[in-house]
Amino acid sequence: MTNNNYQDVTPDDFNGFEDVPTYDEGGATSRIRPTDTGDVYQRSGKAAPTEVFPTSLSQPTQSIDPDPAPLVAPVAEPAYIEPVYAEEPVTTAVDARRGTIDLGLLILRFVLGGYLVFHAIQTFFQLGAAEGIAGLEAQFGAYTYGNVLAVVVPTLELAAGVFIVLGLLSPVAAMVAIAVTGFMAAHTAASAGTGFNPIGWGAEVWLTMILLGIALAHQFTGPGFYAVDSGRGWARRPLASSWIFAVLGIAAAALMWWFGTGINPIA
């Protein structure tokens, strides 16, 4: 059974037509065909059916690129990594307060540097009871280069004393102070005839030994905060430089004694 097209003619469309089929009493039918089938559609007001033929489907042609673009592999998304937070190290606060240490170092510098400056000026200008350069030449008369030592010793005392009082270039100034006080300590001990026997030392020998000890202490402590070198590392926390310049100062004192006096300090 096929469905009629909505445009097909139905029996109702033949109402009012004279050529509609009639039936007799015996059940036979007699059909009167219309003379013109076009009249049926014209009378019914419907369009005649049209037969639609399928058209051939044209396949689209695909052009081939002679130089195809290279295939790019898809970039995989980076895997999420859970961040690991390092624990902050526990630091112990260090008390940076120095109390009266810097004041004590200032007094120490004034004592050592002030004595060296005063003794040098007294020698150069023959002030007070000082015998001046001539007196030093007489003291060093038995040495090979006594006249040279008479000028070198007060000169080194003056230079070291000024720099120590100012707190300027403290490692170098302390090294020079160690050299000159070490030489004078050896000279006074040799002149007293007691050598390095502390029991026989007089006040003059003890004074030069104390000055040598203060110069060494100043080398290892630094000038402190109240100094021109207060911003330097060696001013408040000297490390390797103290040992280096201390050894150099002792070596310089030994060389002054050896070459200046002509006496072997080791013998």
TrEMBL record:
Principal location class: membrane
Keywords noted in UniProt: Cell membrane, Membrane, Transmembrane, Transmembrane helix
Protein localization: Cell membrane
Region Disordered: start-end pairs: 1-41
Record bears the keyword DNA-binding: no
Transmembrane segments annotated in the record for this chain: 106-125, 145-166, 173-193, 205-228, 240-259
Record's bilayer topology term: Multi-pass membrane protein
InterPro entries for the chain: DoxX, DoxX-like_oxidoreductase
GO cellular component, one term: plasma membrane
Family (UniProt): Belongs to the DoxX family.
Name of this chain's protein: DoxX family protein
